[in-house]
Every structure is written in C-alpha cells, then in structure tokens.
Amino acid sequence: MNENRWEQAGAAAGIVFVALILASIFVVPSAPHINASFLNIASFYASNRGGLLTSALLGTLGSVFFLWFVSHLRHVLQRAEGGSEALSPIVLVSGTAVAVLGVLSAVPQATLAFGSHRIELITNPGVVRSLFYMNNVLVGMLSIAVALFLVAASLAMVRKELVAPPLGYAGLLFGAAAFIGGISAFYVTTYSAAWVGLQLGAGIAALAWVLVASVAMLARPEVARAEEPGPVFASST
Length: 237
Prior knowledge:
mainly alpha
C-alpha cells in the first residue's frame, strides 16, 4: 500500500469514528437531567440496559478509530513541520487523551447498566447517584481534552500545515466552546438548558469538524499537496 492509500485510510478512520459516536448517542434515549430524582435515574438504567451497553461498546470502538485518525494527523503534521514538531506532539497527546477519557466517561454508565438487574446496586441511592455524577465529571474532563485537541489541530490549519485555514478558524471557536462547556460540568449541579445546549453544541461541532477534515483529507491526501508547487498543504488566502 503506497503512502496515498495509507493517508486515505487514516482520514477514513475519522469518518468511521464520527459514525460510531453518533450511533452510540442515538442508540439510547437522552439521559436524565443532572438533578433528576434517584427513581428516574435508576429507572433509566434498568429500562435501557441493552442500549446503554451497546452505546458504551460503540463509543469504545469509536475511540480506537479516533486514535488511528490522530496518528494520521501526527504523521502529516510532523512532515509539514519539517522536524520542528511545534504542534504535532500536542495533537498526538491531546488526541490520545480524548480517546482515553472518551472510554473512561462511558464506564460509570456502563457499570450502572450492567448491574441494573442487581437489586443491591440499582436500589442503592448513594451508589447510583455517585456513578451518575462521575459520568458528568468525566464528560467535563473529556470536553477540556477535546478543546486542547481542536485548538492544536486548528492552529496547524491556520498555519497552512493541514487541510485549509477556514476550517482552522472554525475549530478554534469550537475548541473555546468545548473548554467552557467542560468547565461548567465541574460546577453546574442543577439543570440549565443554556449549559446543556452549550455542551451538546460543542460536542456536535467537534464531531462535524473531524468529519469535514476527514472528508477533505480522504478526497485529497496531504502527501499530494506536498508534491505541488507553491504553498504546501493548503491554498493561500
């Protein structure tokens, strides 16, 4: 397999990641609000056991493909930076953190779903609510890691090392939204439509960013851009 094919495979991994994450979201109904009653929370996990476990599995598989996509970005940026490695290490490390925290954030929900048939677990308010809150905090950590990944990769785009600057500017905005949404997860303990909307919007925007970047690189591998005269990896603006 030549380099073009390998780069297309790496870009395609980003598309598979987005598809798996969207499937993991839509396979189950929306979770109860952060200040929902214990009975509503316990009922949700007991009623949606199979769907929640499937969601966790799809999310885990999505993280695997995201690691492949991030490794592809690292390769492309390392070549574009000519060995200086200004942003490529940050993209690799932050992307790996996103994958790891993405898996960890599913553990509390998967645990509640897996044990929902056990009376001693699902009827214990302290255990159920603790795991429910743990999921919220881990999602906040995940959002902050997503913010760092988006900012690092988007700065590379603005510097014309990857895809195109317009997507980079959009990514910087999405990264800021993810960062603010992530911080809110540590402090907001009652339901707020505004904060939930920000967190959800930032997540969807991040997925859209990955999808657009993946499609662009799949259609035209970055190595092909390097072989053209003029600006490398992106058109000048």
